């Protein structure tokens, strides 16, 4: 009887172990995007002029500078500001000029956004929050 109990416990343990590993793997795939994926998704959102998609990669509060008007905003506020920005400046193209990492683990990008009436220099700083890279600073300066 004790042998059956120990055998059953061992089998249950193996099942739970496999379930836990599968769960952790699935959670990592669903929520843990790499730096490259986040930077690529942000690029696609800016190219498309999609404020809704862009703010998915924002921290809960983001430092936003649009033509010298700089402040910290919630994701909701930032989405409205970016929606207005894209409405006034519909992107015709967006490309990164430079990307890098700091010693502190910060990721930064410098890009150029072209629209029918000119270009903007786009500086972006991403920080890791609970294992996810999120945009912490976005600076859009008319060139």
User: Considering DSSP H and I runs of 4 or more, what fraction of the residues is helical?
Assistant: 40-55%
The averaged pLDDT comes out at 85
- Please trace the helix and strand order, writing H or E for each element: HHHEEHEEEE
Number of helices: 4
Q: What's the assembly state of these chains?
A: single chain
Largest sheet, spatial ordering of strands? 2-1-6-5-4-3
How does CATH name the architecture of the largest domain? Roll
Describe the fold and architecture.
This protein is an alpha+beta fold. It folds into two domains: 1-31; 34-142, Nuclear Transport Factor 2, Chain: A. Helices cover 43% and strands 39% of the residues. The protein has four helices and six strands, in the order H-H-H-E-E-H-E-E-E-E. The chain has helices at residues 2-31, 35-48, 51-54, 75-88; strands at residues 58-66, 69-74, 93-101, 107-115, 118-129, 132-142. It has a six-stranded mixed sheet with strand order 2-1-6-5-4-3, with helices on one face. The longest helix has 30 residues, at 2-31. The radius of gyration is 22 Å and the shape is elongated. The termini are far apart.
């Amino acid at each position: 009887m004790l042998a059956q109990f120990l055998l059953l416990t061992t089998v249950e343990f193996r099942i739970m172990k496999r379930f836990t590993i599968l769960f952790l793997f699935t959670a990592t795939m669903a929520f843990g995007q790499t730096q490259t994926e986040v930077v690529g998704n942000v690029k696609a959102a800016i190219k498309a002029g999609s404020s809704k998609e862009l703010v998915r990669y924002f921290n809960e509060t983001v430092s936003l500078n649009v033509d010298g008007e700089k402040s910290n905003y919630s994701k909701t506020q930032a989405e409205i500001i970016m929606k207005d920005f894209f409405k006034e400046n519909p992107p015709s193209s967006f490309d990164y000029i430079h990307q890098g990492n700091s010693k502190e683990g910060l990721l930064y990008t410098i890009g150029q956004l072209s629209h029918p009436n000119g270009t903007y220099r786009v500086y972006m700083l991403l920080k890791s929050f609970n294992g996810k890279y999120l945009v912490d600073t976005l600076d859009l300066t008319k060139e």
